Amino acid sequence: MKCNICKYPLEAAIFYSQENISITSLCEVYPQKTEVFFCKNCGHSQTTPLSDIDKYYDLSYKILIETEEEDQLYQTIDGHKKYRIDHQVETLLTKVNLPKNAQILDYGCAKSSIFKKLVKIRTDLTPHLFDVSEMYIPFWDKFVHSNNWATYTVKPEWDEYFDLVTSFFALEHVTKPEEMLTTIERLLKPGGVFYGIVPNTYTNIADFIVIDHVNHFSQNSLEVLLKNTGFEAIHIDPESHNGAFIVTAKKRSINKSSSVVSQPSQYAISDLEREVTSIAEYWYNITTKIRYFEAEHSSCKFAAIYGSGFYGTFIATCLENLERVECFIDLSPYRQGKYLLEKPILSPQELNKSTELVYVGLNPQGSSRSIAEIDNWHEYTHEYFYL
């Protein structure tokens, strides 16, 4: 296997799941072992792709399609909820100076709720959409003219047409990121802007073992990818979006050079290798930690899992006796009322007072703070397990 970014031969996997099952970014169990590799040349990490990847994204990857309004909770501060779409639109408008009447394209857009909100704020913009599935067309049809979208293959008349091309959490899913960025570069006008968001494995370690995330970018590998595909004025921001890198880059005004892009120093690569090795060790050890805690509390009759996303799903798949778990708890009203692994998803206010244990299935970086902000739980006596 070769690196998706620099084509350097990859050595043995630094992580593989201990069971022949994995979890997708939609929190679904998938019957394939997760294998993660690290590139010692450019600092990229990558996962063996799904066995049916094209079919999966065409027909099975149904993200947030139950209603038009469905969204993911981004953060809660002092009881106030902020959703991902709101944050992403605000950040885009802060970072990109869009000209009046700009032509914009959302590449790998799903239902493109971001553009739907964006064009309500900037009514002069003309939105265009592209995805590798037709399942989102009913959503597009409500705010974009049918001439301005495409599925599976971009339109030839789009070459050098756009002032801005965006990609929100799409690059991590593709097996050929260089091909995708080369296409985006071709679609941009000279000097046009690419704006992308990808997961940051180093601040959201769940990304490391999500099986449908083929690419786990470092700042180094992102820079190599962008330079190799004809971009300049590259800025990679690891701070403005929780657990993600925000990328802005301009299409070069002259033909891109065919020369080889200089690679990061071996010192930087060795640092990245130590970090990803530490993340791999964490995921190897956490299953044992979960099962040890469960065994220590074998007399527990009623437990719950806080968080119905990836971390919560992972905890559930590790437990020896899921029957003790009554429910999942989630702050997002878009998750409440649904079921995960045949367990109901409830609001924090609905937690049974007789619950003895709460497994906290959140990003370890902010999980204790999130729990502390649940006011009505302060009087409860249940015990917490943190990842």
TrEMBL record:
Keywords of this entry: Methyltransferase, Transferase, Ubiquinone
InterPro entries per UniProt: SAM-dependent_MTases_sf
Gene3D superfamilies per the UniProt record, alphabetical: Vaccinia Virus protein VP39 (3.40.50.150)
Highest taxon in the source lineage: Bacteria
Pfam families associated with the record: Methyltransf_23
Gene Ontology biological process: methylation
GO molecular function, one term: methyltransferase activity
SUPFAM superfamilies per the UniProt record, alphabetical: S-adenosyl-L-methionine-dependent methyltransferases
PANTHER family named among the record's database cross-references: METHYLTRANSFERASE TYPE 11 (PTHR43861:SF6), TRANS-ACONITATE 2-METHYLTRANSFERASE-RELATED (PTHR43861)
Protein name as it appears in the record: Methylase involved in ubiquinone/menaquinone biosynthesis
Lineage start: Bacteria, Bacillati, Cyanobacteriota, Cyanophyceae, Gomontiellales
